[in-house]
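tl;dr need the bound structure. longer version: we got a ligand (26Q) that a collaborator sent over and nobodys looked at where it sits. i said id run it. heres the input, straight from their email, havent touched it
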Amino acid sequence: MILVKITEKKFVTDFKQKVTEMYTADYTDVSTDQLYQVLAAVVHNYFVNDQQETRLKYKKEDRKQVFYFSIEFLPGRFLGLNILNLGLNEVVENGLTRLGLSYRQIKEAEPEPGLGNGGLGRLGSDFLDSAAAQGIALQGNGIHYRYGLFDQKFVNGYQVEIPDDWLRSGEQWGARRENRACVVRFGGNAWLQPDSLGRLRANYENTQDVMAVPYDYGITGYHNGVANRMRLWSAELPNEKDKIYTLAQKEEINQITEILYPDDSNWEGQLLRLKQEYFFVSAGVQSIVRAYRHLHQGFGQLPEKIAIHINDTHPAVAIPELMRVLMDEEFLSWNRAWNITKKVMSYTNHTLMSEALETWPEGMFAETLPRIYQIVQEIDRRFRVEMTPLYGENLVSTVAPLGDGKVRMAYLAVIGSHSVNGVAKVHTELLESSVLGPLYKMYPERFNNKTNGINLKRWLQVANPELATLLDKTIGTGWQHHPDELQKFMVAVNDQKVLSQMGAIRHEKKKQLATFIESEMGIKVNTHAIFDVQIKRLHAYKRQLLHAMYIIDEYLQIKAGQKLAAPRVHIFGAKAAPSYHYAKQIIKLLNTLAEKINNDPDVGDQLKVVFIPNYGVSLAEKVIPAADVSEQISLAGKEASGTSNMKLMANGAVTLATMDGANIEIADAVGQENIVTFGLSVAEAENYQNYRASDIYDSDPEIHRILDTLIDGTFADCQTEGQAIFDSLVKYNDQYLLLADYQSYKAGQARIDSLYQDRDSWYNIAAINVSQSGKFSSDYTIERYAEEIWQVKIEQGAQ
Ligand code: 26Q
């Protein structure tokens, strides 16, 4: 593909022309928001041809295509990444400067599409980006939510949720494609009846029909002219002229894609959620089969031309839905349809926590998706018939798709796919030995590991252009296409010149963040302090509370007249699910600590606590490059992988971690001297029986003293929350073993302090972390999926 050469002059002309076209005004006479819209339109125009050409090329080559089904995508702002991918950074920056405009300010005007909760949605988007960069024919399939994840504000330290109207300035990047709409059916009755040719036809009555309209977003590859597609479906009224809908019926339909559910690790069987799942899955499967039929004869070739990947169980109804389409609409036999379906489908699991595993009450499922339910019943029946003689009824019924009155989506996903993967080595091992143990026994060949990765284009080049430029200067630009080449940055170790340049950049990024914190929150922070960062969803298992205990410990030391070994700024970013009471109590506690500590004159510059509201991709881009310490402190065995650990490492933060998820692989990559690990191992945590938190509270005077501050009025503003948290730890026996890990965590923090004292060796460690992060590029992860699961072509193309 040919890259159109866009010069600065052309860009400036296009830009000015577009302002006039859109606003009949001069560029000096419009708002920053309008400037953003203009810039987005100009940039979008530069790759619309790539979108068409890419599609044509795949079609011409009759390439196998992968469809990545995910109920969430969290793309982050599009503008900066698209400009980088198109190779237009300098052109745009210089062009805008020439007009007296600030590229940085204009970028900030883009509303972030918050169409995901956290790691899972972000991973989906990093995969789309990396697939485009690697020339892999992969399309995203998801939901066009009208409102994304809520915006978070703090009022008196409490989280308040505000609707996220991400489309307030219109659609800059998505194209509505009404001609590609399809109808999705819910409810009513379904039965089979022979037609005049004797083939069984599905009949439906009293169904609720919903029209699915796609919005297509171009996903640009890095300097290669590729633009893949992310297709997000929106629910609308069907176009039936003779049908009249009541207001309530209209509401019910529009509601399907109105909001993103804000829970990330806690399963709630909500009817609307089931409808969301079937809605985007059915629309996706129908449009895929439609496109396939257009180009091919018969269905024998389907698995050679199509792969459908289900990102966690939320899209697992794709299995019975493809069966439905193949049997009811294309008249394939069960056996043929089943063989095809298994070859087409593959599944990634993202959690081990039983409370997050998706199950639907059978009654609700049957009523909402009657035909799909019949197919699941048949999958269940055949599974039992096949496996019972081999494994016995007891084992088989523990993992059959139907059981305990529920449809168990993870089991359905394994049974209906040819590949099942976990997202870090230890996570995959635990899947095999516990949650999916019996299915591993039955289908060992299906299981494999694919450790997560991150898109270094966004997390280094967009978020930290200063460091990316230093890398370019020191080791050349090869790492941009071959992230493994970051290894070359090991030359920085003990090279005073490079280290001091890196040190200067790190300090600059800390200053930028400090300016942001001061302007947004009015808190002044010491940029020479250790920036100790924990950014992720608020969840008990992630143990933000362990970090809070350490802050209280430091505060008590200062109040007792001691000086901290090194000044610290503790930085948090985290949203709590609105219904997750305990997580919200922890937010209130952290905000109370911040308020008290930041305003205590005894503390001064030594210690600050900053809980930045509204954590999301854009905020992560500001915080990550400024982090000295990356807190990855989940209880071992609970965090499937984690990906902020990788983003922080790539930017040179030192990881303080339990041996959980991908932390274990990060430790392997950098070596034990270049990471600080602590705490119980997976095996130890699992076998920690007879644990009595109250014994630790009674016998460890430091822990005792820390926990007492929660209830003795030290933090008077959160007495109720303090008491509840105290009780959860001491009285209700501390489910996530914080007290068991506390002293080891504190020793880890002490090690951080002593490492930080020697700035040269600290920067060495930082440089080693950057050098070893190439391994965690999602470019590699997606290649492994492509080769080992989907068997599709990788074509890196122009560079
Ligand atoms: C399910 C049902 C109802 C409402 C919401 C949900 C729901 C939504 C999102 C359940 C789970 C999620 C997201 C989970 C998630 O982000 N998991 C994380 O996935 C990352 C990518 O693999 C891992 O790195 C993290 O360890 C894992 O926690």
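gonna send this back to them w/ a short note. DSSP finds 32 helices and 23 strands in the chain.
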